[in-house]
Amino acid sequence: MIRVLGIDPGSRFTGYGVVEWQGSQPIYVASGCIRVTGDDLAAKLRCIYHGVSQIVDMYRPTETAIEQVFMARNADSALKLGQARGAAILAMANKELPVAEYAAKKVKQSVVGKGNAEKWQVQHMVQSLLQLSAKPQADAADALAIALCHLHTQQSLVRIGSVSGVRRGRMR
Fold first, then answer.
1. Of 8, 39, 40, 63, which one is the catalytic site residue?
2. Cα–Cα distance between 17 and 1 in angstroms, integer?
3. What is the pLDDT of residues 36-84, one digit of tens each?
4. pTM (two decimals)
5. Are 41 and 84 in contact, with CB atoms under 8 Å apart?
6. 67 catalytic, yes or no?
7. Torsion from C-alpha of 158, 162, 166, 167, nearest 10 degrees
């Protein structure tokens, strides 16, 4: 069984989502947000680190996935996001978990079908794919989408690896 913890890092809220692969479909386990508190940078990073560590201890994922940093219009925002990612990655690495990284466009492509999808579209598709009764909060939905992207990627690799005798689209 594969259980994936997806992390959507942020300097105010860090979303998390836990999904596992059962049979041939993803199953929702948990999701939510870590409210980042603290008066200075060190306290905020400590909050993210401890929050992610507690989530790992609680849900026992076998794999983790996190969104890559992207450079938007504001370099300061990208730097803060990178620092939040670092705290989350360290928490997962200290638990000796593998950490996969995915670009936001790849996550949206995997879940919605287009790399420039809006937040509401991600929320809708996460709700639909995981058969949730309500739309998850935006940061939690993003984290669930990251976990789903990782599961889809892993399942694709398993399918590709199980095909034998195929070379350049032809059967040998």
1. 8
2. 17
3. 999 999 999 999 999 999 999 999 999 999 999 776 678 888 888 899 9
4. 0.89
5. no
6. yes
7. 50
